[in-house]
Structure formats: structure tokens, C-alpha cells
Design goal:
Elements: E1 4-9, H1 13-24, H2 26-33, E2 37-43, H3 47-54, E3 59-61, H4 64-69, E4 75-78, H5 85-95, E5 99-102, H6 105-122, E6 126-127, H7 138-145, E7 151-157, H8 160-172, H9 176-185, H10 194-197, H11 200-214, E8 224-225, H12 233-241, E9 244-255, E10 266-277, E11 289-296, E12 300-307, H13 311-328, E13 359-369, H14 374-384, E14 389-396, E15 415-422, E16 425-426, H15 427-438, E17 448-452
Parallel strand pairs: 1-2, 1-4, 2-3, 4-5, 5-6, 8-10, 10-17
Antiparallel strand pairs: 7-9, 7-11, 9-10, 11-12, 13-15, 13-16, 13-17, 14-15
Helix pairs in contact: 1-13, 5-6, 6-11, 8-9, 14-15
Bound molecules: L-homoserine.
L-homoserine binds near residues 159, 188 and 196.
């Protein structure tokens, strides 16, 4: 059978990795796919560089639409990124009857519903293994390997840049800014690093996984997103003293209604720094590596670990999609794996819960005046709000590295840091308790609140 023909839009790091891996492993890939897979056409604005990377025999153009219009092309790989031109081109490729492979998590998290609907109507596949956790085959695992399960939750370290920064801050005591520059120099960060450090990239990925896990539409606009840029190194140290590591986790969880806890049914969808017990495997995922934990009712806890970015790890996922499409190219569209794992007419209408209705536990740090009765007042507010305390730690201010930087006028007040771990409660109740604690005259600085996940 003649090789399947592929057109590539955007010859960057992942594009050149895709060429390299396809060439190096072409015999094995052909034996698996049942026919050869060849990238025959590339669109990139830098013609000379793209031609050099693609090699002789590949037609390189600077107009992506020429690739889409080529009747010989069966599959279009979109590696442009972003939501503007990439969205237009993906929809045009679908309209032209091409299957699409994309690594574009932002595009699918924001416009996935429209794109999948267009693909289903046209009977083509949109494959996106490379969009989530790079080389880790987590889409395949969720959509196929775990298909027997009712998924209960997913927790992922799905942004390598922030995991690298947090690892460097903990290991080497580096400041956030220095660690960020190192991450950028190593090529981990997105073109706009705010997407990494403010949690947006991770939120795109957990939004996609949440949709597949629970059969809900992709709803990036409903995700709660908080990054690591305001994380203080002293909280990383205190967390460690309490047996925890701080990770930027993408979390999504199915929640049943619970009258006793006054909580509603729905889906939690959130990204924020989280304390994770140091003894969990996922807490020991260091540097730019990614890991995803999935809890299914039948299988229990599973963990997937690997490189979440980079040329050949991401190419590994792109090519896996090319092989899948090649195998299913001639199958009846209704017999293919649905884009979001569930049949389009069997999606759930479970709603994404607002953050105030999320249930989790907390780490609180309060810089307080070291006076009689302060602890009693703070714990009294928590008790009044029906929030159960798990552990309390007190550290004198002079043991704290930031003690020399206290605001002017507060130097003479004896101060101490109170660190409190709580059991689970609804976020709205914690918000109310935090407001009351913050109003105490003996609480001297804004209270630090970091959520905590036991992942048991
Ligand atoms: N900037 C991303 C990361 C790359 O740091 O994980 C892959 O999405």
C-alpha cells in the first residue's frame, strides 16, 4: 500500500524531532502501522531553515493553505501553537477532509468543542496525544486503557517549567526569578512564560484530561487557575518540615453531593500550588519531568511519568497519533475512538464547580504578634467555622529567613509564624474564616493559604 502522506504546519523543535524519529524508526513504524508514513510537505515562514531540517525530497512552502489544499495529503500536523491562525487552519484542514494531529493544548482547551464537532461532522480524526504531558501517553491511557473505570480523580504535575522552578527552589534555595531564568535558558518555558508560571499551561492540560475522564465538554473558562509566582521559599521549607512538598498540581475530581458536608455534586477543575505528602511517588517527581496520577474505581491508583516536553518526547506522541490515524483511516468513523472518550451523544451535563464549592485541606501561615491568646483566637475562628485542625507548628520570627525584611514599624513587635494544617473543608468556609483571622489586629501580614492534597 502506498505510504500515507502527511503535511506539517510549523517546523519548530517538535517538527524536526518528528522528522528525526520517523526517519530513524521508519521500518518499525511501518510494521506497526501497516503502511509507510511520510511527511511530504511542510509549511514554515523560514523556508531555508525548514528545508534544511526536512531534507531533500520534502516540499517546503511558506503558505500553510497550500498544504491543506494539496489533495495528496491525508493528515495535517498542526505545530503552530496559539488560538488564532492555528484555529483557522485546523478548521480549514477538517473542512478539506484531512485528519489533524495537534500538540496545541490551548486550542483544544478553549475551542475543543467546536473543533471536535466539526471533525465528527466531516468524519475525520483530530488526535492530540502531544497536547498533554508531552511524551507520556496519558490520552491513550485515559481514553482506552482505563475505559472500564469510573474515573474518580486525576492529579498531575503537567508543567515542566514550574516543576523545575519548584525543584530548584527547594534543592538549592534559589529565588523564584533565578530558577525561572534557568528554566527559560533550558528551553522549558513557553514563549510567554506567564502561561507556565501562572498555571495557564497546566490548566489547558487538566481541562482536556477532565473532559476525557468525565465525558464533559472542554471548559477552560471554568477552571480555577493559580500559579507559583507568589510562592515564598519559607513556605517550601515549612512544608518540608511538616513532611510535604509543594507542587503545582492540575486537579480534577468527580464529586458526589454530600448533605453532611453541605457540598454539591459536580466536577472540580483547578490548578494551584498544593502540598503533597513527601512520601507519595508524585511528590518526588523533580526537575522538568511530568507525572499524572489517575484514580479509577476498578484499577485503583495509577501513575504515569515521563518527559512532558522536548523535541523527540513530543514527537513520540505526534507519531503515535499518526500511527493510530493510519490504522483507522479506512474504518467507519462511528467505530473509531471518540475524541473525548465518550460518544458525542452520551456526554455528561455534570457542571464544573466554582472554587468556593471545592473541598480540600489547607496549609495556612500567619505572621502574628507573639502575645498571649493569639493562637486561641485563631483556632477559635477555625472551630467556629467547623474546620478541623490537623497540625500546628510555631516558628519564631528570627528562625525565619525573611525576618530581616519585615515592614517598617513592625520590627519591635515580637513576632512568630503560626503554621496550621487543616482537614478537608469547603473552600467557602475557609474563605470566611480567613477573612475573620485576617481582621485580627494581632495578625500582622496577609495570611498565606496553600491547598493540600493527600492523594491517598
Ligand atoms: N512549557 C511547557 C512545560 C511545555 O513547561 O511543561 C510543554 O507544554
Amino acid at each position: 500500500m502506498k505510504p500515507i502522506q502527511v503535511g506539517l504546519l510549523g517546523m519548530g523543535v517538535v517538527g524536526s524531532g518528528t522528522f528525526n524519529v520517523l526517519r530513524r524508526n521508519q521500518q518499525e513504524i511501518k510494521r506497526r502501522a501497516g503502511r509507510g508514513i511520510e511527511i511530504t510537505m511542510v509549511a514554515d515562514l523560514d523556508l531555508a531553515r525548514a528545508q534544511a531540517q526536512a531534507g531533500e525530497g520534502v516540499k517546503v512552502v511558506n503558505d500553510a493553505r497550500a498544504v491543506i489544499a494539496n489533495p495528496d495529503i491525508d493528515i495535517v500536523i498542526e505545530l503552530i501553537g496559539g488560538c488564532d491562525i492555528a484555529k483557522t487552519l485546523v478548521l480549514e484542514a477538517i473542512a478539506a477532509g484531512k485528519h489533524v494531529v495537534t500538540a496545541n493544548k490551548a486550542l483544544l482547551a478553549v475551542h475543543g468543542t467546536e473543533i471536535f464537532a466539526a471533525a465528527s461532522a466531516k468524519g475525520v480524526m483530530v488526535a492530540f496525544e502531544a497536547a498533554v504531558a508531552g511524551g507520556i501517553p496519558i490520552i491513550k491511557a485515559l481514553r482506552e486503557g482505563l475505559t472500564a473505570n469510573s474515573i474518580q480523580w486525576i492529579a498531575g504535575i503537567i508543567n515542566g517549567t514550574t516543576n523545575f522552578i519548584l525543584s530548584e527552589m527547594r534543592d538549592k534555595g534559589l529565588d523564584f526569578g533565578v530558577a525561572l531564568k534557568q528554566a527559560q535558558a533550558l528551553g522549558y518555558a513557553e514563549a510567554d512564560p506567564t502561561f507556565d508560571i501562572e498555571g495557564v499551561d497546566a490548566a489547558h492540560k487538566i481541562t482536556i484530561m477532565s473532559a476525557i475522564a468525565f465525558g464533559i465538554p472542554v471548559q477552560f473558562d471554568k477552571a480555577y487557575v493559580e500559579g507559583i509566582s507568589r510562592l515564598a521559599s519559607q513556605d517550601i521549607k515549612y512544608a518540608e518540615q511538616l513532611g510535604y512538598r509543594i507542587k503545582l498540581l492540575g486537579m480534577t475530581k468527580r464529586r458526589e453531593a454530600d448533605a453532611s458536608k453541605r457540598t454539591a455534586a459536580g466536577i472540580e477543575l483547578r490548578v494551584h500550588p498544593s502540598l503533597v505528602p513527601a512520601k507519595r511517588l508524585i511528590a518526588n517527581v523533580e526537575g522538568a519531568m511530568n507525572a499524572v496520577m489517575v484514580q479509577g474505581d476498578a484499577v485503583g491508583t495509577t501513575l504515569y511519568y515521563g518527559k512532558g516536553a522536548g523535541s523527540e518526547p513530543t514527537a513520540s506522541a505526534v507519531i503515535a497519533d499518526l500511527v493510530d490515524i493510519t490504522r483507522l483511516h479506512t474504518a467507519d468513523p462511528l467505530n473509531r475512538v471518540p475524541h473525548l472518550a465518550f460518544q458525542p451523544n452520551a456526554m455528561s451535563d455534570l457542571h464544573v464547580l466554582p472554587m468556593s464549592e471545592v473541598v480540600t485541606s489547607y496549609y495556612l501561615r500567619l505572621r502574628v504578634a507573639d502575645e498571649t491568646g493569639v493562637l486561641a483566637k485563631v483556632t477559635g475562628i477555625l472551630a467556629e467555622a467547623d474546620i478541623s485542625i490537623d497540625a500546628v507548628l510555631q516558628r519564631e520570627a528570627d528562625e525565619v529567613s525573611g525576618a530581616g525584611n519585615l515592614p517598617a514599624g513592625t520590627q519591635s513587635v515580637p513576632q512568630t509564624d503560626l503554621i496550621i494544617l487543616t482537614h478537608d473543608c469547603v473552600e467557602a468556609r475557609m474563605n470566611a474564616a480567613l477573612a475573620q483571622m485576617q481582621a485580627l489586629p494581632t495578625v500582622l501580614e496577609p495570611i498565606t493559604r496553600i491547598r493540600k492534597e493527600e492523594l491517598a
